[in-house]
Every structure is written in structure tokens, then in C-alpha cells.
């Protein structure tokens, strides 16, 4: 009996952009109803591969097919394919239901069919109470789920997902994967590109992609058995880094001792800090103290109030109530002085893509009014710290996410600020570059710099000295990672930070109480 042919097939698939080979002769296949993960570092070729498979890009060499149809002409099976790109393809000025209707029209789904199907998708995703809300007003997790609903409105047999959960909190990621589990049970084939190695664990099979080539492909279980033979910790993340050879050498973050909370001078102090937008209370009377030289992590679901808090501390937003000081300056009366004494790295990195590395540094040096000689010295320091010596003349838009991230950090540090605020700085960055970034953070803290950082990666939250969990504008818990986990120990088993994060949110949803 002949085996069932694969629904996705690639043979020696190659894509070149000029002299750059983005995808280099990869071959793999995916069976009906399988969840297949494509895992790779920034610039590894994941997105290019998905674009070739979905017919968005033509291959330079090799062949690929979906449902037995060549990817060079997918018109006969276009209605059987769903594709959720990194940007979701949403229209911010349209409501939730208008976005769904728009995508239904693109696929030619009759009104009677898409209305019935949308009811199921909205219920499954938890978006049914928000059908009239504009997409631009949704949280990151809600946008992510709306993007999935739009990709599924025509009931595809194959679903492609390009890093769908980047920058999304653990609760939203969990809800997203529940939807995927339902689709798998219904026989949908899913190919997902992801930088989250814990998500890769959920796949039936994964392929590690690096510099456009597949380094290994198998089930997570079999790959972890291989990890044991390599004498490393049997996790997919450690195995992924080990496959990268010399690039993964000495990847473990070397931590410095945290400051003494009892004797250290405070860098950030806030008391009953509040911010309202009309009737909506985004930050609701929070109080915190962060000593000099501490790496302080700020965790919370999308829309919890993290970015709003940081903007108040940076002098960008005026508080509606409460008080606080940053670097010794009052946040309500000395906002301009605060801006001169802090570094701020936003989620979008705030780089000018058409400027080179050196030109971006010179631009920010001008903003900070650094004299010529000092700017030259600081520019050399930034380039060395970020490992950009060979990329001085590269345009920022040509750099991978990991390189842009380090350049943005360097620009934020040009004027030697004693405090730096990092708002989800590692979203979309692969595991190796995230570790490199956190090594730089610990090096800065060892020199006395205070680091206030938000993140959705629970593994890297472990690198913080202390954490605060904010939910619905209020502080739920504060403490070191080990302290927070010990408080919730059941028997001899410590919960992971992700388990603790979800547990605290669910508990406070039930009780309606905050600390």
C-alpha cells in the first residue's frame, strides 16, 4: 500500500537576492494533519521559505508543492491555503468584524457562509465581545487572534504561521495554541515559524534552519535524545544553540551579584502612580522602588499597563495621580531633566532604516548634544559593544533583528545614562541573540547602570534581579524570581515563571484582589 503523499513538499528549494543566498537548497515534507515547526535565528530564511511555499516569492532553484500543486502556480488550491504573516495583514481603522468580512471577500466566501464561520472563530478566540472595536485599539494578543481568524475565514486545509506569537504574553500565547490544537484535531495541517523553543516542543516535527540550510529535522523527542549524546542540557533551546557551532560557544549568561536592597541608593521611586485615559484607568496606584545597579523586570499581559508606566517614568506621559522620582528628578515637574539622564529603548528600536550604523549613532549623538571628540569615542564604544565593527557602513534596515536590537541599545547608551528603560527589547529575537543581549545587560549593571526592562519571555525574566507582575493596571506580585516561585511551591516542585505568571493572573481574576 502506497503511503499518503505529503501535503507540503520542498526539494532543493533555494532563494537568492543578488549575492545573498537566503535559502540554500532545503528539502522537507509535511504530512496531512501534522504540526511542523520551522525554527531558526534572525535572518535564517524562515520567512523567505514560507513566502516561497505560499507563492508570494518565486524560488530561484528547486521545487515545492502544496496539495500536489506546484507553488509556482497555486491558483487551483488557493482557497485551501491560509497564511498569517508577521504583520497579520489587519486594517487598524476597521473593526474586528469588518477585518474578517474584508478577508472573506478576498477569498470569495459567500456572506451566509462567512457569517456562520465567523461566529465560531470569534467564540473560539474569545473575540466575540469585541466585534465593533477597531483593530488598532486591540491589545497585541487580541490582534494576534484576529489575524488568525482572518486567515481561517475560508476554512483552509493548510495553515502557514510566520512567528505568530512574537511580543505576546504567556496567557495570550496559551490561548492561541488552544485554537491551534482545535484546528489540528479537525485535520488542518500547520507549518509554523517560531523563535520560541517551548512552542517548538508542541510540534510533531521541527526543522532547525540556519544561514538558509536545515541543520537537523526530527521530532522534539528524538532531537532531545540527540542533545543528551552531545552532553548538553536536553532542551530544544540548548540543542538549537549547539547546532550553531562556534556561534553558540560560551552562550551562557554570566551574571553579576545583585545590589543590596537595604543599603543601595534608590534610582526609581514611585508612590500610588496612576494614569487615566478618559474613563479608562491604565495604571492604577502602583508603588515601587528600584535601587541603583539593579536589573528590574516588569512583567504583565498585553494591555496590563507596562508601557504606560515606562512612558510616565521617562517623562513622555504625565501621570494622572501619584508621585515619583527617576535619577533624583520628580516625574511630574522635571520631565525634561529626566530625559537627559536616562536611556530609552522602545519596542520598535527607534532606528532610521535608511541610515547606516554610523549615521544612526551620529544622529543620536546630536540629539544628546555630545561634542565631536566624545561622540567619536562613544561611537567606537557602541560599535565594539554591539559587535558591529564589520557593519559600520551597513544600513540599519539591512541588519537582522538581533543586530538592530544591539545598535538600538548602543544608541540609547551614547550619553552614559545611569538608568536605562527597555520596553520589550527582545521581541522577535532568536535565543542565541537574546542571550548575547542579556550578557550586555549584566555587564552594564556590573558598571552601576540601573536597568528597568519589560519582557514576555519567561526564560529571560530569570536573568532579572527582581520582578514585578502588573495586571489590569495594578501590581500583583514583587520579588526575585526564586522568591516568587518559592511562594507558590507545591510539594518539592517549583513552578516555572510562566506557570507562576498564568497562575497569578487566573487567581486574581477569580478573587478580584491585588497587592
Provide structural commentary.
The termini are far apart. It contains 17 helices and 20 strands. The strands form four sheets. It has a six-stranded mixed beta sheet, sandwiched between helices. A six-stranded mixed beta sheet has the order 16-17-18-13-19-20, sandwiched between helices. It is an alpha/beta fold. It has a domain at 8-218: Rossmann fold (3-Layer(aba) Sandwich).
Topology:
Layout: E1 8-17, E2 20-30, E3 35-40, H1 46-53, E4 61-66, E5 69-70, E6 81-84, H2 96-106, H3 111-125, H4 140-152, E7 158-162, H5 170-185, E8 189-194, H6 197-200, E9 205-210, E10 213-218, H7 220-229, H8 236-243, E11 266-277, E12 280-291, E13 295-299, H9 306-313, E14 321-326, E15 329-330, H10 335-340, E16 342-345, H11 357-367, H12 372-386, H13 401-412, E17 419-423, H14 431-446, E18 450-454, H15 458-461, E19 466-471, E20 474-479, H16 481-487, H17 497-511
Helix pairs in contact: 2-3, 2-4, 3-4, 11-12, 11-13, 12-13
DSSP strand content: 15-25%
Number of helices: 17
The proportion of residues forming helix, as a percent range, comes to 25-40%
Calculate Rg over CA atoms. 24 Å
Main beta-sheet strand count, sense and barrel state: 6 strands, mixed
Q: How many strands?
A: 20
By helix and strand content, what is the structural category?
Answer: alpha/beta
